[in-house]
Amino acid sequence: MYIIDLSCISAQETYTGAIFEEGVKLHTERQYWAVEPKYKGMVPLNLLRRMSKSVRMGVGTGIPLIDRYKDIEGIIIGSANGSIKKSISFLNQIVEYNEGTLTPTDFVQSTSNSIAGTLALMGKITGYNNTHVNNGIAFESAILDALLLFEEGEYNRLLLGGVEEISQANYNVDVLRGMFKEEEVDSTQLLHADSPGTVSGEGAALFVVDAEKSDASIAKIVDVAQICHADKEAIIEKAKQFLARNHKQVDDIDALFLGLNGDNRTDYYYNHLQETLFPHQGVYVYKNLVADYYTVSSFAVWMAANLFQGKTMPPETIWKEVPDTINTVLIYNHYEGTQHGFILMERP
Amino acid sequence: MTKVLVTGMGIISAIGNNVAENRSSLQKGQTGIGRGELLDSRYVEVFPFGEVSTSTAALMESAGLAGEKGMTRTDILATVAMQEALEMADLTAAQISSSETAFISASTVGGMSMTNELYRDGNKIGEPSDYLSSYICGAHTLKLAKRYNMSGVSTTFNTACSSSANSIMFGAKLIKSGRAKRAIVGGSDGLAKFTVNGFNALRILSPKPCTPFDRDRSGLTLGEGAAFLILESEELVGDKPVYGEVTGYGNSNDAFHPSSISDDAIGIVASISQALKTANLDPSQIDYINAHGTGTENNDISEVVGIQKVFGGLPPFQSTKPYTGHTLAAAGSVEAVFCLLAMQHRELYPSLNFTNPIEGHNAIPIPQYQSDCDIKHVLSNSFGFGGNCSSLILSKV
What we know:
The complex is a heterodimer.
Chain A: E1 2-9, H1 19-22, E2 31-32, H2 45-50, H3 53-68, E3 74-78, H4 84-96, H5 105-108, H6 114-123, E4 129-132, H7 138-152, E5 157-164, H8 168-176, E6 200-201, E7 203-210, E8 219-228, H9 232-245, E9 255-258, H10 268-277, E10 282-285, H11 287-290, H12 297-308, E11 318-320, E12 328-335, E13 339-346
Parallel strand pairs in A: 2-6, 3-4, 3-5, 9-10, 9-12
Antiparallel strand pairs in A: 1-7, 1-8, 5-7, 8-13, 10-11, 12-13
Helix pairs in contact in A: 3-6, 9-10
Chain B: E1 4-13, H1 19-28, H2 56-62, H3 73-89, H4 93-97, E2 101-106, H5 115-122, H6 139-147, E3 154-157, H7 163-177, E4 182-189, H8 193-201, E5 225-233, H9 234-237, E6 244-253, H10 266-279, E7 288-290, H11 297-311, E8 317-318, H12 321-324, H13 331-344, E9 377-383, E10 388-395
Parallel strand pairs in B: 2-3, 2-4, 7-8, 7-9
Antiparallel strand pairs in B: 1-5, 1-6, 4-5, 6-10, 9-10
């Protein structure tokens, strides 16, 4: 499967691409808020006002892509929490108004499929449409869905992406279960913090993907794999199987994109895989740019695609020296040490 | 390409806590819709519901999970239905935990069924509840994957009311592609204040039990439930009993409106046509349609129009939602179980709550119980907000 175009809203200047010229943005809070574009011109204002942030970010990245490629046939989105802020606001109203008369707008957007649904509606795309919500591997599952669809031979071009938003209520719930750092750590120190927890992020990364290679191909997504509830040795085994399944040797991998997030309870998965299986490979990191969220691996795919397009990766992303030429990368990300995903990408 | 066979099924709905009870209610034409006794909502005074009559605690007890912390209604319904499906398919622990066994589920409300707990946790009121890791849609999938030590491909769908139809489709596709040999597929949704208030805000809840395809229909009735199928690649099945084959599936988007379907049923026609194409069947070969049939003004007329466009006439059809209520994410898998039962036992079930056909369409659902029916291929439709349309075709083996 080949990426031919892409768009990303994140806590960095990714929408304009300025991140590659002006450098990365420093974050000092525990929430890394997305830098949103001016949506004016993309969406009528009355519609925009009613949209949840995740729908808005999905539209902001997806609609320009749909406008550029009139032949997108289907849409597959990974979004674990969807429009969680609208959901919780609706829930709060239920409790606070004791089940009084409520407006349905928030409810209609509460299901994660409102992102893919809105894109289909605005772009009049009546083909395949699906939404994966399986927490930390929702985007990996969306990739798998697209790969299957292309293998079946009925589709040639799809819109694929991962979208997540921060809501205060969900942030609170995740604080209660110890997800985030208690101390203040800025983004330059996040990955060195050696303390429990990470920081919370949000964003949208959408890709136009083709079944076949062409001159327009930017990057190839070769394959995807996932496993849950595995220990660090099982992760090594899974990585080996994944490479073997794709007829790759360890030496074929030039660099890793690792999801290190500064949580000293679970970063050992990344270090163990890197030290044991890939001691000679370069390593990129990215959560010091955009923090952690369920579908953050879509941001890693966006970075890797930019790398293959010839962009110079910001120095903050280089964790271990990378070779001059990079043709094959392995993205490994896990969520809370519970769900693990692998994405194999190549220069087309 | 390998055939995808159904070797087990499990269900819990308002008409029974297992497959046998569900079938018995269908045969007798006995509805599960009534007054909500367990649901904590003031709307139990206003609307009927398709409630599973057993409490969460009692279900946990019978599932061997008494006292387990953080179990939501969605979690326990999923657990009960999955246990039955696994037993029926006689899968060993090693088979369930094999990396070649996929687990695909679906939910719309997930653990947001715990409205009051989420309200307090989200607003940092009082001590943290036991449900911090239970609210998110995919939580039940992750918990079950852990309980059964699963290591295969796993995902959770949320395409609103078509969610578990997509689970069945995705499981079948994984097996056909060779990425899995088996798949446990389905969905679960517990009745929740959240959804009751949501559908009430949309003004599409019926004050009386839903009357799908009736001229005077007045909205949908919410239900709850879960259902799972065990799908296996034909070469694994051997002498096991087989309840059907997943032969067709279609998925499309109506791209018309956030919460209603177009008058010309674009998405419905596309998903049914795609399912027929995948199954390599002619419309005339479909012997029974289990319609989405929610009982809303919009759904039923669009669905009749869509079916008529594809089929010319109307094969025997009905909605079984007057039995169970609309079980949202579980509807696709709940109704797939009903289709498989009809096929296996060569019977059609009576349609409830139907009096007059929609004007201008002579669309009359199956009137009474029929036995000795030769049912080879059945179609099941599921449509959701966001324009999502999915259709499945199940066939006799």
